[in-house]
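Subgroup meeting minutes
Present: P.N., E.W., G.H.
Scribe: E.W.

1. P.N. recapped why we're keeping a running log of single-chain structure predictions: easier to compare across weeks, and new members can see raw inputs and outputs side by side.
2. G.H. added today's entry (333 aa).
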Amino acid sequence: MLNNIFLRFTVIALLVTATVFGLNIQKENKIDADAKVVLRLAEALPENNPVTIAMRRFAELVSDKTNGNIIVKIYSSAQLGQESEAIEQVQLGIIDMTRINSVVLSIVSPSMGVFTLPYIFRDFDHKYKVLDGKIGDEVRADLNKVGLTGFDYMDAGSRSFYTRDRMITSIEDLRGLKIRVQPSYITIRMIELMGAVPTPMNYGEVYSALSTGVVDGAENDYVSYSTSGHYEVAPFYIEDNHLSPPAILLMNYARFRSLAKPYQRAIQEAAREAAWYERKIMTEANMRAKEKMIAAGVSISAIDNRQFREAVQPIYKEFPLYDRLIKRIDAVK
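Output recorded in log:
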């Protein structure tokens, strides 16, 4: 216990030191616009996932916009660690960039958690009116406080449940099942309110857990369900669309500020173009993935999710931090 506490304080101390040191030197040590810069970007998803494809596009755009003076090296398939590990490494400046789902990111920057509440967005258009507007800007700005710079939001699909042994036709069928979730309090609490047993674990462990019965089910969008092979061991997919959390590209704050202004602008522009590209190909990929799952024999049910919505209503009152943001999000037309 004492060792864990000591380790946590050590990490915090290193993070504060790295951030303060970075802020102190950035004005004196701006990287010249003619210098070659190599940035390492951690991506947990595999090469065939639309998000990773978009990160490859981002790297190409950065190179084009800087005449090859900035090279972004992509390390996909969690080569540099899972998402929670990648965030810490970027904060500490061990690696430069990572693409993170907002569910995991909310642990580090709490305001990001409002986008991970169940059924917070009415539909796709509403979602991006919020994220591309003042609310999205304000939440993204909070990342600076924890040593991170955030760029334009990307799509992570709409998440639904899938199970090993049987189709879910009502919320009663979900009760008591062990469901893998991302390590986020909001997601854990949502599953509890639905009557299931939340089981947090890293993405890379889910296939084995489903195969061996460690968990009864999980939740994700069609693309991740397909590319991960989870449909092979959990062939019942239930379209309830409980979460639609965005993803976001992050960079170490001090590292970004150390770059010359033309480089900063180039990265911002490339990130924006890559985000819009990713939203398009993610939508298309989810449609294709669903067709593939049907062809593979997966049982799919588009259920009425009103019972699920009603079950999770208490979660909104449990997060007074989000009261103002929730009202503003709801008011966006």
